[in-house]
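Input/output pair, single chain:
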Amino acid sequence: MLKLLKRYSRLFLVSWAPRYQGQWHGFSLQRLLVMLVFWPSFLLVQAINGIGLGLDYLLFPGFRRVSVREPLFVIGVPRSGTTFLHRLLAMDSRFTTTALWELLFAPSITQRYFWTGMARLDKWLGRPGARLVCWLERRLLSGLDGVHKTGLLDPEEDYLGLIPVWGCFLLVLVVPVPSLWQLTFLDRDGSADEKQRLMQSYRRFVQRHLYFHGQGKTLLSKNPSFTPWMETLAEAFPDARFIGCLRSPTAAVPSQVNSILIGARLFDGRDTTAYWREGFLAMLEYYYLHLIEVAEQMPQQRRALSVMETLVRAPSDTVLGFYRRFGWQADAHFCEQLQEQDRKAKQYRSGHHYSLDALGVSDDELLQRFGWVYERFGFIKPDG
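Output:
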């Protein structure tokens, strides 16, 4: 606890005027205003969550004995269909997955029982609270629809559950420091103590989730940010299965750089494009390499690859192929839902188009860093 408080204090101080590419650029008025809103809200939520997590040991001590059996991790390169695949799989009743509201406002069992109780009361009163929450949700989250459409009830990435222990890479937008960047190379660069700390925290998080939602369920986790954690996760959960998602670098790389720049502009009004571009190019290069290297070391019945270009054309066949690989049987209802997704896939057209030049990523650099990906998976190469 003392170490965590020291980390919070250090990151709090650094966040007001962070260094980009090793240089201090002075204070930004926009960042100052954002931090004045962010830190009080963040610390208040974390304090409430901390109380809830502590009460779990008193009110629900049995959660520590919950077994985590055969979890499924959807990982891979960001912007490569992980969200789409996650939500397809989440339709199967065998799985339980985390919703955004649980991750942000109810990581503890205590809070989940409290808020579900409040929801029942609200329903009895005619749902005035639900209508207010829906209104606020659309006002606050609709701006993210172009990058990552989500809602409080939607399945979401459970690495957000590691925010209290600063194990969530997304916090790098708030505090761009090496200790958070290191999370994107955890298997390679993380110390044994750091890996153990994160896995202990994550296991407790999963145990709480299964305790609340049903110990007979299988955890479905979707986190591109867990791609550089594959070896660590495989060791911590020896019976886990992994689906790694891939996409042509021509589409995945600019899409990811663009999405992070949207967040960066929110937190800091200055032009930090070069910092994020270089950081994410190095990160994505490692993701592609690490995903394939680790997957090839695993037994075939524990891993599979999903290519987005194939997934969006034939979601049903793709998912059922994974089930055959893992020795699972899909029930009739789930198969019907997958067939409906096939019909929707025929009408899907992506509205996202990004200029490599505008992001400072050249065709030559893509070929230099990711040439082997184009060759191995038959992706169309950029004109470079």
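Strands lie at 19-20, 23-24, 72-76, 95-96, 218-222, 241-246, 303-307. The CA atoms of residues 85 and 335 lie 15 Å apart.
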